[in-house]
């Protein structure tokens, strides 16, 4: 009996640890700072701030890229920065607005370089915050980004109008294109939902183990002892 209790505790600890590691991830924001989003710039930053405040970012690493034209791309927060949540929120609030034309395709290639600094053994959630309009082509650089392993890509737009077609190219699927003032809340929910099933799925697919003692007793009953 004591052995059974001990084994139960060990298995429970193992699955909890596995679930925690499965849920841990890095987070990269690409925030459009071009002229077309000028009126919604503050709302975009509030969306990013809301995501950070609602996710448990104790062990996550965050990077933030602000972009406009091909010559205006800046990594304002890097993966290797160790920041408290309040310091991170302050930096988000103070991100610069560049204005100018939009070159999302160039920003995608810029982001690919920044992703080299992520933790390779974890998932990385990449969040585009943009209206989807761009003066350069996004299809090919988006394919390059989607080809990388362990990425989950989302596109958030708080702007009207927006370019649904290019937003889907960025996110890779319509389900990960989120619009409106509640887009950030839905993103947090999606990230949490993608995290939660992993532990339960693994538990449900794991074959039950039979203790040697029970197996022995069962064998004795069959043999008539």
UniProtKB/TrEMBL annotation:
Pfam families: VWA. Residues 1-19 form the signal peptide. The keyword Manganese does not apply. InterPro entries: ECM_Assembly_Org, VWF_A, vWFA_dom_sf. Residues 26-203 form the VWFA domain. SUPFAM superfamilies: vWA-like. Residues 199-208 have a biased composition (Polar residues). Residues 198-225 are annotated as: Disordered. Keywords: Signal. The keyword Signal applies. PANTHER family: COLLAGEN ALPHA, VWFA DOMAIN-CONTAINING PROTEIN. This is VWFA domain-containing protein. It comes from Mesorhabditis belari.
């Amino acid at each position: 009996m004591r052995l059974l209790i001990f084994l139960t505790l060990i298995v429970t600890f193992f699955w909890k640890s596995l679930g925690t590691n499965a849920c841990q991830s890095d987070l990269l924001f690409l925030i459009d700072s071009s002229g077309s989003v000028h009126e919604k710039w503050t709302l975009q930053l509030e969306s990013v701030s809301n995501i950070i405040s609602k996710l448990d970012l104790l062990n996550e690493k965050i990077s933030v890229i602000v972009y406009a034209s091909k010559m205006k791309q800046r990594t304002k927060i890097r993966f290797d920065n160790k920041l408290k949540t309040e310091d991170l929120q302050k930096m988000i609030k103070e991100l610069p607005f560049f204005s100018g034309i939009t070159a999302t395709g160039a920003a995608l290639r810029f982001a690919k370089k920044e992703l080299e600094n992520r933790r390779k053994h974890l998932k990385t959630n990449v969040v585009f915050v943009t209206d989807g309009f761009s003066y350069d082509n996004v299809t090919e650089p988006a394919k390059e980004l989607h080809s990388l392993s362990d990425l989950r890509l989302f596109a958030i737009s708080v702007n009207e109008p927006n370019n649904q077609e290019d937003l889907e190219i960025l996110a890779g699927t319509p389900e990960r294109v989120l619009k409106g003032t509640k887009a950030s809340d839905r993103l947090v929910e999606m990230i949490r939902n993608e995290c939660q099933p992993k532990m339960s799925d693994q538990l449900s697919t794991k074959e039950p183990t039979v203790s040697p003692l029970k197996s022995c007793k069962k064998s004795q009953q069959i043999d008539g002892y």
